[in-house]
């Protein structure tokens, strides 16, 4: 007995109990609508997807090849089409997630218009996008199940019991498009209370995993830009606690917190950490400061000093009232950040790096795992990296170390198209192709994501169409470059009315009004050209 069958029987029993007033209600139609609306609240989604992530994390601990992946999306439709594509080509959504990028929310979803990634956009835009994404994913479920129901009706009408049994099994074992979302809460959009309140809204919308970074909230910068300012560990841990409280209050006891450190590229701090005794967390944070030893008579008006080992030290303070760290301390600060976060409630780590280099990441992870053996990373396969140049230079260095003659290559100019068909370029592309697998095995990366790929793909595909359509190709640019490919490659959007829910609406009209229903999908619907 399946849930579908149970619903048919329970509604039939209820209909009998109510009597003739419900004569127009078809129990199977109700069962179909319930199947198409499996998740009734965002909290149901958050719990379902948290269970998936925890299961995947446990599997990765035993097998590093079982890493997970996602692409950043900025609209519900884009997320929907990504999951439809995954199911079509790869047959399962297993270990494939969505990433909600604060960068793309700022650039594409703010009422202020395009903004830089500096936490200036409306904080409500983040839970709103989570809600939108899951609305579109649930609609994708409804659409695919609607198509299966139509096939089931056709098989029944034809008396084909074998087909009926097969289609019914597809309905009973249907895999949802709903997958985990790792959602970016930036630096928390304010104090810990503000972080807690926003985290609650994100979880209520369906987020099972929230990523927070250790930058100053009102000075937050994109992880790949200059001018990043970190906060003392105690400040960051308060926000991790705030998120955990939000999960626990809402009953998502296994919600996932991703602690991101920007310390590798952040040379500044807004304030000195509070230290109560030598070697405590505040003292460790302050130990990275760029300081000079002074005597009391050297102090000027408003100078700030700290003491360590009997020395009077003056941290170097900028005109912005920020303090700077000693150069070259970034990796050590990252390691301390990560260990501290894991020991205080975080589940996964995110180390924002300046380049995709496995040895660099692994060096830090080895140190972290010495303290926390199960440490795992979420890693940003960022579009801010020049992947071609980075890996061609890594390939160049590896081949040179092997003693090969590299005189045919200019290391500084390896992006040049003239190198595209060389052995070095092919070697570099192989390194890029296996980067996720290799780094997951060597550097503890559980989840690979690209933060803003669909920002770039939208621009590129639009450029392709505009160039041809407004140029010499005219309508052929759309027909050849879009519609013909949709038809031949089985892209569901070619029947855009169906994708937008027209056929579901027609079925509902028939449920509600019977033969009196005025439906849109008749013989004159031009979408029939794509049947």
From TrEMBL:
Claim: rRNA-binding is one of the keywords in the record: no
Coiled-coil ranges (or none): none
InterPro entries: ICL/PEPM, Isocitrate_lyase, Pyrv/PenolPyrv_kinase-like_dom, Pyrv_kinase-like_dom_sf
Keywords linked to the UniProt accession: Lyase
Catalytic activity: D-threo-isocitrate = glyoxylate + succinate
Gene Ontology molecular function terms on file: isocitrate lyase activity
Short name of one Pfam family: ICL
UniProt-recorded name of the protein: Isocitrase
């Amino acid at each position: 007995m399946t849930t579908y069958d149970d619903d048919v029987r329970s509604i039939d029993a209820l209909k009998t109990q109510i009597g003739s007033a419900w004569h127009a209600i078809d129990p199977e139609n109700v069962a179909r609508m319930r199947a198409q609306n499996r998740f009734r609240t965002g909290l149901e989604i958050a719990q379902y997807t948290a269970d998936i992530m925890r299961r995947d994390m446990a599997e990765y601990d035993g097998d590093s090849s079982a890493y997970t992946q996602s692409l950043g999306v900025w609209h519900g439709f884009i997320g929907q089409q990504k999951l439809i594509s995954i199911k079509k080509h790869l047959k399962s959504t297993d270990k494939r997630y969505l990433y909600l990028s604060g960068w793309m929310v700022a650039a594409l979803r703010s009422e202020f218009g395009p903004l830089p990634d500096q936490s200036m956009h409306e904080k409500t835009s983040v839970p709103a996008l989570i809600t939108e994404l899951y609305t579109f994913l649930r609609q994708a479920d409804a659409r695919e199940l609607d198509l299966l129901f139509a096939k089931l009706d056709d098989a029944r009408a034809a008396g084909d019991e074998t087909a009926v049994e097969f289609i019914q099994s597809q309905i009973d074992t249907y895999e949802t498009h709903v997958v985990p979302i790792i959602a970016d809460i930036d630096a928390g959009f304010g104090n810990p209370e503000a972080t807690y309140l926003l985290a609650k809204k994100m979880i209520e919308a369906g987020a099972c995993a929230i990523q927070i970074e250790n930058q100053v909230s009102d000075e937050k910068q994109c992880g790949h830009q200059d001018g990043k300012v970190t906060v003392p560990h105690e400040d960051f841990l308060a926000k991790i606690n705030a998120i955990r409280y939000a999960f626990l209050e809402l009953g998502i006891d296994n919600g996932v917190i991703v602690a991101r450190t920007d310390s590798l590229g952040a040379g500044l701090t807004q304030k000195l950490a509070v230290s109560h005794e030598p070697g405590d967390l505040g003292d460790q944070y302050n130990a990275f400061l760029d300081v000079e030893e002074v005597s009391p008579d050297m102090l000027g008006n408003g100078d700030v000093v700290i003491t360590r080992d009997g020395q009077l030290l003056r941290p170097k303070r900028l005109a912005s009232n920020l303090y700077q760290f000693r150069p070259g301390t970034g990796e050590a600060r990252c390691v301390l950040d990560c260990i501290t976060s894991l020991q205080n409630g975080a589940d996964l780590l995110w180390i924002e790096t300046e380049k995709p280099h496995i040895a660099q990441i692994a060096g830090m992870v080895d140190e972290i795992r010495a303290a926390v053996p199960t440490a795992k990373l979420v890693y940003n396969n960022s579009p801010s990296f020049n992947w071609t140049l980075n890996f061609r230079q890594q390939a160049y260095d590896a081949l040179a170390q092997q003693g090969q003659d590299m005189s045919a290559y200019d290391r500084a100019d390896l992006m040049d198209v003239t190198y595209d068909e060389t052995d070095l370029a092919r070697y570099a592309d192989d390194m890029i192709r296996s980067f996720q697998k290799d780094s997951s095995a060597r550097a503890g990366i559980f989840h690979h994501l690209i933060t803003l790929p669909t920002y770039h793909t939208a621009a590129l595909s639009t450029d392709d169409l505009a160039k041809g359509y407004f140029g010499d190709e005219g309508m052929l640019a759309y027909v050849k470059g879009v519609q013909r490919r949709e038809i031949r490659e089985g892209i569901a959007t070619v029947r855009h009315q169906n994708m937008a829910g027209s056929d579901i609406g027609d079925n509902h009209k028939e449920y509600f009004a019977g033969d009196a229903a005025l439906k849109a999908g008749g013989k004159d619907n031009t979408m029939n050209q794509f049947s």
